[in-house]
C-alpha cells in the first residue's frame, strides 16, 4: 500500500509519521464534510433557507470539488470565489436561496444559464428530473462538464454557448435559473419557459441588481422581488445591448445615507447580503432622518451589508472614504478581523483580489463621529466591494453618510 510521509507538529516538536494514503484521503474528506455541515448550519439554515430538500442537497454537494485548488481552503466559507475568466462561484447562501426560490420538483426540466463551475447544477441535480446548463466561456464550460461527469451527475447536460439565446431544442422548460445578471430578462428565455413556469433571475444595472422570481402567465412574466444582490454580468448579447453602463471613473456609494425607504421584504436598497440590521428613523441622525444599526450577541456571527462599485485604477488615483460611526459595547469576535469597520476591497479585471483597506476598526463605545481616510487605488483595479458591519464582533454599531469621493489621475 502506498504510504505518504506527513510531518505534524506535536508538543512543540516535529514528528514524522507514515499514514496510509487511503486513510489520509478519508481524513481529508471527513474534514470537508465537517466544514460543509457547519457551513450549511450557519450560512444556509441560519440565514433563513428552510426547504429540507434544498438543505439536504447542499449537505450532499462537495463544493470544494468545484473550486480551484488555490481557493479550496475557503470552499466552505459563505463567499463567492473566483473560478477564472472574470467569473465566480456564487456564495453557498445565494445558491441555496435561489434553489429554494425555484421550488424544484422531481418532474422538473430546468434550464440553467451560466454553468460556471457546475456547482449550482450539481445542487439542482438530485432535486429535479433534468438540468440543462449553458456556459458562454468555453474553458469553464468544458471544465464544469468534466467535473460533473467525474462526480456522476448523470442528469446534468451542458453545452458551450450564449445563454441569452437559451437552448430551444430542449424547450419548453418547467423552470429557468439564471446565475448571471442581464439588464432585463432575455426574450428567448421567456419564450422557452412553459406557461406557468418559474424563472429565478437577477436583473438591473451592473452593480445595482435585484433578484426576482418570475412566473409566466399568458406569455408574460409576473415579477416578485426577492432581495438586492450582485452577480457577474451576463455576457454576449445581453451585455452588448445593456442601456445603462457603469461609470468606473466616478465611483460612489449608492444610498450611502440610507434615506431610501426599505424595499419589499425589508431590504436596504442599493446594498446586498444584509445580516442582522435595523433601519432606524431618528431626527438626530448625522445625515437626513435614517441610519443603519447592526446588533449581534453571538461572537463570530456575521452582521454586515455589502455593495459593488465600478472603479478603474487607470482613471482613479485615490478615493476619500468617509462615514459617520457610533458604537456601543463592542467586543472583538473570535477572529482578529472580527471588529466593526468600513472596508473596501479592490479587484482586477480577472476578479483577483488586490487588497482591502479599512476605516476603523472600533471597540467599546463611541458617540457619532465622522471618520475619513484617503485610500490609494491600485492601478489594475477594475471594480470594488464596499463592506460595513460588525463582522463577527458583538455589541452594536451604527453607520450613516457612507461616501466615496474619487480623485482622478
Structural commentary:
A hairpin with an 8-residue loop joins strand 12 and strand 13. The chain folds into 2 domains: 192 residues, 3-Layer(aba) Sandwich (Rossmann fold), CATH 3.40.50; 145 residues, Sandwich (Jelly Rolls), CATH 2.60.120. It contains 7 helices and 20 strands. With 409 residues, it is α+β, with helices and mostly antiparallel strands. 18% of the residues lie in helices and 40% in strands. The N terminus is likely disordered. The strands form 5 sheets. It has a 7-stranded mixed sheet. Helix 1 crosses helix 3.
What fraction of the residues are assigned to beta strands by DSSP?
Answer: 35-45%
Order of strands, main sheet, comes to 7-6-5-8-9-10-11
CATH second-level architecture of the largest domain:
3-Layer(aba) Sandwich
Q: Report the biggest beta sheet as strand number plus sense, adding barrel if it closes.
A: 7 strands, mixed
Please identify the top-level CATH class of the largest domain: Alpha Beta
Number of helices: 7
Name the CATH homologous superfamily of the largest domain: Vaccinia Virus protein VP39
Shape: globular
Note the gap between the termini. Answer: 62 Å
Overall pLDDT? 91
Q: How many distinct beta strands?
A: 20
> How many domains?
2
Based on CA atoms alone, the radius of gyration comes out at: 22 Å
The ordered string of helix (H) and strand (E) elements is EEHHEEHEHEHEEHEEEHEEEEEEEEE
Structural class: alpha+beta
Report the helical percentage. 10-25%
List the uncertain runs: 1-27
CATH fold title of the largest domain: Rossmann fold
Amino acid at each position: 500500500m502506498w504510504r505518504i510521509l506527513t510531518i505534524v507538529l506535536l508538543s512543540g516538536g516535529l514528528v514524522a509519521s507514515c499514514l496510509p494514503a487511503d486513510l489520509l484521503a478519508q481524513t481529508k474528506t471527513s474534514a470537508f464534510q465537517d466544514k460543509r455541515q457547519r457551513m450549511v448550519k450557519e450560512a444556509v439554515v441560519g440565514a433563513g433557507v428552510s426547504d429540507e430538500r434544498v438543505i439536504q442537497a447542499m449537505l450532499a454537494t462537495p463544493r470544494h470539488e468545484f473550486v480551484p485548488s488555490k481557493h479550496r481552503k475557503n470552499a466552505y466559507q459563505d463567499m463567492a470565489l473566483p473560478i477564472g475568466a472574470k467569473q465566480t462561484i456564487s456564495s453557498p447562501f445565494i445558491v441555496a436561496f435561489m434553489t429554494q426560490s425555484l421550488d424544484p420538483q422531481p418532474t422538473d426540466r430546468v434550464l440553467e444559464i451560466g454553468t460556471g463551475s457546475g456547482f449550482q447544477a450539481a445542487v439542482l441535480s438530485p432535486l429535479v428530473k433534468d438540468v440543462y446548463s449553458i456556459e458562454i466561456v468555453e474553458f469553464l464550460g468544458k471544465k464544469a462538464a468534466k467535473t460533473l461527469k467525474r462526480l456522476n451527475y448523470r442528469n446534468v447536460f451542458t453545452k458551450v454557448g450564449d445563454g441569452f439565446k437559451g437552448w430551444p431544442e430542449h424547450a419548453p422548460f418547467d423552470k429557468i435559473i439564471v446565475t448571471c445578471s442581464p439588464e432585463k430578462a432575455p426574450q428567448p428565455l421567456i419564450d422557452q419557459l412553459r406557461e406557468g413556469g418559474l424563472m429565478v433571475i437577477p436583473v438591473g444595472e451592473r452593480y445595482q441588481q435585484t433578484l426576482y422570481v418570475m412566473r409566466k402567465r399568458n406569455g408574460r412574466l409576473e415579477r416578485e422581488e426577492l432581495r438586492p444582490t450582485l452577480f457577474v454580468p451576463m455576457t454576449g448579447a445581453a451585455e452588448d445591448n445593456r442601456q445603462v453602463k457603469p461609470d468606473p471613473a466616478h465611483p460612489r456609494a449608492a444610498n450611502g445615507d440610507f434615506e431610501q425607504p426599505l424595499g419589499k421584504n425589508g431590504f436596504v436598497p442599493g446594498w446586498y447580503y444584509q445580516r442582522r440590521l435595523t433601519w432606524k428613523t431618528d431626527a438626530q441622525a448625522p445625515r437626513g432622518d435614517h441610519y443603519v444599526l447592526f446588533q449581534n450577541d453571538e461572537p463570530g456571527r456575521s452582521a454586515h451589508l455589502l455593495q459593488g462599485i465600478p472603479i478603474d485604477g487607470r482613471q482613479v488615483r485615490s478615493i476619500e472614504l468617509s462615514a459617520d460611526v457610533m458604537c456601543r459595547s463592542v467586543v472583538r469576535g473570535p477572529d482578529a478581523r472580527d471588529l466593526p469597520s468600513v472596508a473596501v476591497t479592490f479587484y482586477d479585471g480577472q476578479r483577483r483580489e488586490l487588497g482591502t483597506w479599512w476605516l476603523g476598526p472600533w471597540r467599546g463605545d463611541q458617540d457619532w463621529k465622522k471618520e475619513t481616510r484617503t485610500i490609494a487605488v491600485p492601478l489594475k483595479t477594475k471594480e470594488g466591494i464596499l463592506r460595513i458591519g460588525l463582522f463577527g464582533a458583538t455589541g452594536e454599531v451604527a453607520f450613516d453618510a457612507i461616501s466615496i469621493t474619487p480623485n482622478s489621475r
